Batch of 2 targets.
Target 1
Amino acid sequence: MNKALERLRRLAGKASADYRMILPGDSLLVGVSGGKDSLVLLNVLSAIKAKSPFPFSLTAATFDPGFSGFGAGETAEYCKSLGVEHHIIPFDMPSLLKEKGNPESPCVLCSRMRRGCLYTLARNLGCNKLVLGQHMDDVVISFLISLSRGEGLTTMGPNVASEDGSLRVIRPLIYARESLVAEAAASLELPLRGECEFKDYLTENGARAYFKSLLETMEQRIPDIRSHILHSLTDLRPEYLLDKRFLDLP
């Protein structure tokens, strides 16, 4: 294993231990989009499984939204090359978007459908946890978006219950910067996949793209700002915030 993958394995192992993500006997369904984050995650989990002192199972699944040239078949072959069973969830997202009037930014709808399909597949396969590939940058950016929109002090949790309460959703890469994931991906022969048809719009107008750029600008003044924000998220001090439910008011 190369150095980047080995470091990711250690960080994922620490995150799993800190937040009790992977336990003996767990049956994990890994959401594999075909992008670098999820494919690197699957590599890391395969390595952890091979050296784990306790048994757990891995299964992968790809939500195919039906966009032209998405490449779910190549993703399936790559998963199988790692010895991981893979499932493709076909979905006609173009037709649904047309039915909904072709919303300018369909990400919320697509994300909702993808997550629901993964929940259903996890239940049908008897998996008790859904594993997603969000990393440190995703956690920090989600926090900044929520903060700026007045949606509360919240972000992507490392080990949380699904919306329907049927399983846990875990994110083993929360301690890893995107740059480390990209370094690991560059050393692997990952399959190509089609891009989202709305990629250009999201790059120019999407909230995540904006806050990612903002974070990079802030890092020029505050080195390791991602790690600092992540650490702050582990050090909640409600008595110094404004939520009256946690204040000892006279």
Target 2
Amino acid sequence: MCCHEMNRRQFIGLTAAGVAGAGLVASDAEAQSFQGEQWDPQIPFKRWGKPLRVQPVLLYNTHKPRAQTSWRPWGGLHSQDDVAEEMNRIGKELSDVKKRADFPLQMYPVVKVQNKEQATAVASKSDHDVMLVYAASGGGDALEACYAGSSNNLMFVRHRSGPVYLWYEIAHCRFLRKGGDAFQVDEYRDPAGMDVHDVVVDDTRELMWKLRAIHGKENFVGKKIITLGGASGWCCPQAPLVGKEKFALEMINVPYEIMARRIQAARNDKKLVSQCKQEATRYLDILDTELETERPFVENAFLLYHLFKQLMTENDADAFTINHCMGTIMPMAETTACLTLSLLNDEGYMAFCESDFNVIPSGLLLYHIAGKPVFLNDPTYPHHGCVTCAHCTAPRRMDAENYAPARIMTHFESDYGATPKVNLPKGTQVTMVCPDAGQKTWVGFTGKIVESPFYDICRSQYDIEIDGNWRKLLQDMRGFHWNMVLGDYSREMDYACRKLKIEWNNISAV
């Protein structure tokens, strides 16, 4: 069956059990002894992910005068006093970077390196994710040795921010090109190598966003995600396998038979049912929240919220997706999963509908880069510089702090359940990612929300003014679903995609 022969929501299912091994799910006995924290609208947004560990190194040499010959290379570190001053300067700059970082960052003390042996000793330690070399001077063998133990490598050189560095002159010709015309670094670096984008001149703001991108990449690769009802791919049944092989994603399948039993056990828990009624009241009391569906749908959405969280907790996961969410789950839960997924996203989890692993990998990376909820959406046909994007699972705390106004309605296509129609302010900047099925090229662009309309489509819907060459988007669109996040993270996505061997096709930069 070809894509054009399928209706809009028909997926070719592929269970994660056949892709990622046996599912690690709790027993039914565990499910019947439910113990969960109460939902609280004031709970701070939790950004999941491990801190990025950075090892800074100052590479340098000092030289003694020799008569009637060149004895001193370029560079401003001439004495141990100069070195001590530079160490202090680097320490202050990195302390400021850590203070300003909006992502978990662990900055180790700066280490001084003068030769290959010292560099090898530092690089051989396995407790860092990034090697950051301040290449003031020193030989190429020592510089290469610094990078031998990491796939995330950065070089910082000075032009105006302090004493000029030797490698400001020769990083391109002597390190990246080895004295020739062609880049040579990838021939001896494995697996990621270095390129021109891994060298930072003077700018600690650039260093910051590149570290943010690496933080996203490091937390994305090897991600564990619960797949209720299996993993799928829109028009691409091999999408889960691609995600596993390219990104080492671990998909933990939970069959619907287990979920059905858990829902029934939860309904028999009078304390939990009463708690969900109270939580529904607290949710509907949030400022600018209007109820336009039946209240039991909202209460049942909170029941699902606790059960989905329980599955993640049992399996040490912070990401979740549900397959067949516009059919199978509804008679079991007597609601839709839309509001439930919105609640999880508002709390800081990564929660996606439709189990589409064409698009979920890009959403996981975008979340870890931005540290904000991601909105998986259906795009429309770009025209006149505008595109409409809509779905029924939009988070309300898209900025990771504040609840946007929302109308709690039925899911559009079933006219059933509880779904938030989230309205975002005009002028809100967004980054959009449109991935291809093979995870080879991701199209991206930035834009601004010009309207939160009310068409007869999925409830949360936004007309977006596209930055850049919107006509190119017509030619380059891929897949079916997109991911959206508030703010401009196009630089970080470009840099992280390079590390992941994905082409970042930024429409807004054309």
